[in-house]
């Protein structure tokens, strides 16, 4: 048993640093494995290779090992990433057969899976049948509706969550801000940003700033957007400058677009995408003038 524990710890350690090749080699050389060993490797692959994670899950089942709760959560996430609808349904059946359908973590993973597959009625049904609804579960449902373009419904579910006495976490706010941005409700977005600190005691992360940038870009407020990119308490990354560049392209602001492209080129001298966007923008302006 000591060898299994030691080897499993090594598999997990290499998986944590992203070295799946070594983790897999140690796993394959193990004379004995247990359900924890399988779970560790399946979870690692779920973050990097959804299809391989699914193959390992099926192999584990064939070898007679019972999946743990964390394994189901990981493999359902893999199904979501790989758009493996049929496999996800089979795993859902396995969950039900083992009487784990009321487990909150697995339930949240199922809501997320069906939401990403566009099956919102099933996602809502699973949500409603769970005995407890925590912030992770509510966020999974909000994200499901926002992901599928049902933006008013996503915001309505958020309000429903608040009325139920559940406060949002940082991940919830990212989904809500994204829904506000894509739904064209800029005012609501700003309200949620202000309430993060005052009502929810949450700090703005880079992900929240990126959502606000998208909100400003879609509203055509490039001056505010540029001010935010250059003054936020985080070093603007490629995503931030690309968001700014894309907004400039939509509005036709060549001067600001050029500044954004230069910043992106400073980050990666081999990056051609910024100048391709800029070139397309120049061509569009020229065609409009003709």
UniProtKB/TrEMBL annotation:
The UniProt entry, under PANTHER family, shows:
DYW DOMAIN-CONTAINING PROTEIN (PTHR47926:SF533), PENTATRICOPEPTIDE REPEAT-CONTAINING PROTEIN (PTHR47926)
Q: Name one Pfam family in it.
A: PPR_2
The record's GO molecular-function terms, alphabetically, read: RNA binding
User: Which BP terms in the Gene Ontology apply to this protein?
Assistant: RNA modification; system development
Organism this protein belongs to: Selaginella moellendorffii (Spikemoss)
> Where does the record place its PPR repeats?
3-37, 134-168
Could you list this entry's UniProt keywords, alphabetically sorted.
Repeat
Descriptive protein name:
Pentacotripeptide-repeat region of PRORP domain-containing protein
Record's keyword annotation contains Repeat = yes
Top-level taxon of origin: Eukaryota
Record keyword Transcription present: no
